[in-house]
Design brief:
Helix content: 55-70%
Order of helices and strands: HHHHHHHHHHHEEEH
Shape: elongated
Length: 234
């Protein structure tokens, strides 16, 4: 078993007491299918723990740095930074893919660049740091490699806001009212409903959209409205 831990430790500036814990963060389940006697389990349980640790780290950071924000803001900001895309980018910046233990199939299928695998690996590594070094080390790691520049930019530019939130903000600022949403049509069987939703402002329909849920359709309708506003105004 190739030992990638020293290179990893040098890259992230953290030296593990338990080297196996660090190595375990990179064991994808596919590797075990071809290596039945591999001495480590998959990183899935570490990923599960890392997800919770990351959620706590994000909550603590937002609570301390942005005390004036509301709970809803915190929730939307967390969704914007703690997602597969953001985690995979952080993993790519650290070149974590090179340390992965993969099956031959995943290897040939660009598993080292797979966003889901990289995101899970990043969370598993957070858990390994947390278990080996404690919360503060995990907190600093996340701030340095996930939040740095990115999170404050998301907040400054309000990139965390959903289309519905942006539209509501616009409507309140420009018209002193809020948009409303109405289900115009439901089609499809019970287990596979398709919703058509319209968005209205002061009784005027601005746009309509379809989605697999009312929430999805409302978000799409809000996006269409914002596109109209940006293009030619209301």
């Amino acid at each position: 078993m190739k030992d990638n831990v020293p290179a990893l430790e040098k890259k992230i500036g953290i030296h593990f007491k338990n080297k196996e814990l660090a190595r375990n963060a990179f064991v994808h389940r596919s590797h075990l299918n071809e290596n039945k006697n591999f001495p480590l389990p998959s990183n899935e349980k570490l990923e599960f723990l890392g997800d919770s640790v990351l959620s706590l780290i994000t909550s603590v950071y937002l609570y301390k740095k942005y005390p004036s924000f509301k709970e809803g803001d915190y929730t939307e900001i967390k969704s914007a930074i703690v997602n597969t895309g953001s985690l995979a980018k952080a993993a790519q910046r650290l070149d974590l893919g090179r340390y992965l233990y993969l099956s031959r199939g995943e290897e040939s299928g660009d598993g080292r660049g797979n966003k889901n695998i990289l995101a899970d690996c990043f969370e598993a590594l957070i858990a390994s740091i947390f278990l080996d070094k404690g919360f503060n080390k995990a907190y600093v790691f996340v701030l340095r490699y996930l939040f740095k520049d990115t999170l404050d930019h998301i907040i400054r530019e309000k990139l965390y806001l959903s289309a519905k939130s942006k539209l509501q903000e616009y409507a309140q600022g420009s018209y002193k009212t809020v948009p409303s949403y109405k289900v115009l049509e439901q089609t499809g069987p019970e287990h596979k409903r398709i919703f058509k939703v319209g968005v209205y402002l002061n009784g005027k329909k601005l746009a309509e959209a379809i989605g697999m849920s009312k929430k999805e359709a409302e978000e799409e309708a809000a996006k269409k409205t914002l596109y109209k506003i940006k293009g030619k105004g209301l």
